[in-house]
């Protein structure tokens, strides 16, 4: 994905994170792991570490990581290579802590995170992180627009929801373009009933309706015949 291709380099890199990984694995709880996996529709294996405990275990590492003036993509790849989902959560939290260092070129790294081991949980952690790049570097909006037309549903979901919580700074022109790219008539036939896309459209509208209900109401009125019922229901929640 992002790190060294040489096998020896890879082994050395993973060894550098072994202490942290060992701490996580020592905290495994089989019963909790089964419940967590079931909640996530058995998409992934889990160690069984609840979020508060996971963050507490990672706190010393995160404290040190924030002092590093670079993003360690090798660490992110090592986390992504682990089978248990807590390691992907750890990578997302690390990237969130380092988000001020992200530049447009890093969108390619984020895309690789999306294309591997994706589900709504990782996407909902990454979309606003990627969206932050478009605030600092407007040229990165081109990547979000391209994602909104992707064959991959998770890249589309990233594009749809990357402006969540942006409030008054929302780029409504880009928001409208991305949403229109993901209304059922414009989608490939196999994606027209895709829950995770239709839900994301509604979520984006619902979030922005807290800031500009008139804009959202007009968008829904103008596109009602093209929108999925789920998107209308979610988008209209606060109208």
**Low-confidence residue ranges:** 4-13
Alpha-beta classification: mainly alpha
Topology, number of strands = 0
Question: What is the rounded Rg?
Answer: 19 Å
**Count of DSSP helices?**
14
Please give the CATH class of the largest domain: Mainly Alpha
CATH architecture verdict of the largest domain: Alpha Horseshoe
Distance between the termini: 43 Å
CATH topology of the largest domain: Leucine-rich Repeat Variant
Average pLDDT:
93
Quick one: overall form? globular
Share of β-strand residues: under 5%
Report the helical percentage. 55-70%
Main sheet: strands, sense, barrel:
none
Helix-strand pattern: HHHHHHHHHHHHHH
Tell me the count of domains.
2
């Amino acid at each position: 994905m992002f790190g060294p291709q040489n096998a020896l380099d890879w082994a050395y890199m993973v060894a550098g994170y072994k202490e942290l990984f060992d701490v996580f694995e020592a905290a495994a709880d089989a019963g909790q792991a089964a419940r967590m996996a079931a909640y996530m529709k058995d998409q992934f294996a889990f160690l069984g570490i609840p979020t508060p405990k996971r963050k507490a275990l990672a706190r010393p590492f995160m404290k040190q990581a924030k002092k590093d003036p670079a993003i360690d993509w090798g660490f992110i790849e090592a986390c992504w290579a682990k089978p248990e989902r807590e390691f992907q959560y750890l990578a997302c939290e690390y990237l969130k802590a380092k988000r001020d260092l992200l530049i447009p070129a890093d969108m390619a790294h984020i895309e690789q995170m999306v294309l591997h081991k994706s589900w709504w949980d990782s996407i909902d952690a990454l979309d606003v992180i990627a969206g932050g790049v478009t605030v600092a570097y407007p040229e990165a909006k081109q990547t979000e627009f391209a994602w909104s037309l992707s064959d991959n549903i998770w890249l589309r979901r990233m594009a749809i929801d990357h402006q969540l919580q942006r409030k008054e700074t929302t780029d409504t022109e880009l928001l409208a373009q991305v949403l229109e790219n993901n209304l059922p008539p414009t989608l490939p036939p196999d994606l027209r009933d895709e829950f995770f896309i239709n839900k994301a459209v509604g979520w984006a509208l619902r979030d922005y309706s807290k800031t500009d209900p008139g804009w959202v109401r007009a968008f829904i009125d103008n596109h009602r015949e093209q929108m999925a019922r789920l998107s209308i229901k979610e988008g209209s929640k606060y109208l």
